[in-house]
Amino acid sequence: MAQTDSSHPLRNRIKLERARHDLTQERLADLVGVTRKTINTVETARFVPSTVLALKLAKALHTTVDELFYLTDEQ
Amino acid sequence: MTATATMTARSRQRLGRMFDIALFAWGAASATVLVTNGLNDARQAPGWPRWLELTYLIGALLAVPALLIAGWARSRLKKLGAVLDDERTQATHTRAMATALVGVLAVQLPFFFHIETTSVAQGKFTVAAALLTYGAARLWFNRDA
Predict the structure, then answer these.
(1) Closest approach of A2 to chain B, Cα-based (Å)
(2) Most buried one in A45, A74, B46, B47, CB count within 10 A?
(3) InterPro entries annotated for this entry (chain A) (predicted)?
(4) Which has the higher per-residue pLDDT, A30 or B61?
């Protein structure tokens, strides 16, 4: 299941990158074709996106997936 | 972002929430009807008491407009260009279905303890539990962060 809570080790820099590109959650959602709430839940680590969505987010934010997402406690 | 665009975004959020609430209202109304019907079957009452008829009427009055509002909100959202379904909404649906399954199984528990009822009434309780737990779970999983 891709949905999770904030205790999941996957974190991201979406909020930072959004701010850098002056994008709102709504605008980013429009760019990648998802709902604003999906962006919000990915940003707050409540939802782990699929590879496709991660790639779309990275492309929209002019960065790479491994720069956008990282693990806090790699096993 | 312009003020108009912000208002549109807020309208979309409000309409999206309204859609979920309307869907839940429809589920709750249907579940109410099923439960009262099931209770009546379980009691094997000869006729419909007035209060049960009233519940049916209220259920129908809630269900029909809720369904119409949900349909209208959905088409309006699509016209606004809103994305209604994505991988998170699909995951939410899957989780809500799993919760509904738990609800359906939980509602069977009393029937293991020699509770005498007809299979029709049990069926109605089961469907009511599925509707209610699915709707409630959907609202919970779609809550704002």
Answers:
(1) 7
(2) A45
(3) Cro/C1-type_HTH, Lambda_DNA-bd_dom_sf
(4) A30
